[in-house]
Amino acid sequence: MIYLDDLDRAILKVLKEDARITISEISEKLGKPESTIHFRIKKLIEKGIVEKYTIVLGEVARPKEVAFVVIGIEKPVIEDFLGRYLEYVSRNLANLPNILLVAKTEDEKIVALVGAETKNELNEFIEENIKTIPSVREVVVYPITEFKKGEEIKGLLLGI
Question: In sequence order, what are the residues at sequence separation of 6 or more whose Cβ sits closer than 8 angstroms to the Cβ of residue 86?
Fold first, then answer.
């Protein structure tokens, strides 16, 4: 893990709040010279700590309903194929417009964060696009009623 000092963390916090902020505005906010801020941001990019600047959709464009979906896949006769099939299913899920996040677990399940405008649309999407995947053994849906941290992930919805 890369060590970040207080200034690096402060710069990242300011950029997280508004990636469009200018170097001079960051300099003013943090009470540091512009040259220092510019140098630090350049180093954060070079070290791979800052990969890119992006947008987060506003509240009106975010899905109103989200759920974590845990997908269990039947083990194939030839167990070596399970890893490849999980990869195939994960890639295909990641390409669907209502999918915010896809991950594979250690116990060979797939977890997806799914978003939609209404509960009916969310359930319909899960029924038509996830439960119909060949070899799906189990689909457990955990609707999210409240985020305590990370709600902005809803603003990263692809497929707009």
Answer: 73, 104, 108, 110
- 117 Cβ neighbours under 8 A, 6+ residues apart: 63, 64, 65
Beta carbons of 99 and 114 less than 8 angstroms apart: yes
pLDDT tens for each residue of 5-45: 999 999 999 998 888 899 999 999 999 999 999 999 999 99
pLDDT band, very low/low/confident/very high, at 160 (cuts 50, 70, 90):
very low
Q: How far apart are CA 90 and CA 98, in angstroms?
A: 14
Question: 49: how many CB neighbours lie within 10 A of its CB?
Answer: 14
d(CA 45, CA 107): 35
Report yes or no: 53 and 19 within 8 Å, Cβ to Cβ: yes
Give this prediction's pTM.
0.71
Distance (Å, rounded) from C-alpha 159 to C-alpha 98? 7
DSSP letter for 51, please.
Answer: -
Structure tokens at 85: 């099939």
